[in-house]
Amino acid sequence: MLKKYITSFVMLLLFCSLSAQSITGKWKTIDDNTGQAKSIVEIYESEGKIYGKIIELIKPKVENPICTECKGKDKDKPIVGLQIIDGLTKDDDVYNDGEILNPENGKVYKCQLKLDDNNDTLQVRGYIAFFYKTQYWKRIK
After folding, report:
1. Does residue 17 form part of some domain?
2. Interstrand relation of 83-91 and 131-139 (parallel, antiparallel or unpaired)
3. Per its UniProt record, what InterPro entries does this chain match (predicted)?
């Protein structure tokens, strides 16, 4: 009888650990104005922090665009390969305490990422003080 309970408990733990999915992987960004896919961002973990870089642009207006509006080390770097998510840490079901770069205007915002219940949509929120903008990215499977 005890063996049944232990087996059930182990199975429950295994199921719970498999259902908790990470935000790492490839995500399709969606343009706010057109609703069309804009780029592919790869989110990855390094030394306990979350980062993201653009790995592909979908139908860019110009070939091999550079970040002319960026400041500092990112100034005039190619947008493909550009790290846009920097140094987020996990706090319960939210990733925050890092930054996100908008390569269109070169501005850097505080960032918060949250995975939806189905693990296929990522809420991406950039903010300054009380002003924020939210996008919803789709997981590429």
Report:
1. no
2. unpaired
3. DUF2147 (IPR019223)
pLDDT 10s digits, 21-72 = 799 999 999 988 888 999 999 999 999 999 999 999 999 989 999 999 999 9
CATH number for position 119: 2.40.128.520
**Which residue is listed with tokens 């969606």?**
30
Q: How far apart are CA 103 and CA 100, in angstroms?
A: 9
Domain membership of residue 10 (yes or no) is: no
Closest by CA position to 106, among listed 56, 67, 51, 53:
67
Question: For residues 114 and 93, is the Cβ–Cβ distance under 8 A?
Answer: yes
Tokens of 73: 């080390």
- By C-alpha distance, which of 83, 129, 137, 91 is closest to 110? 129
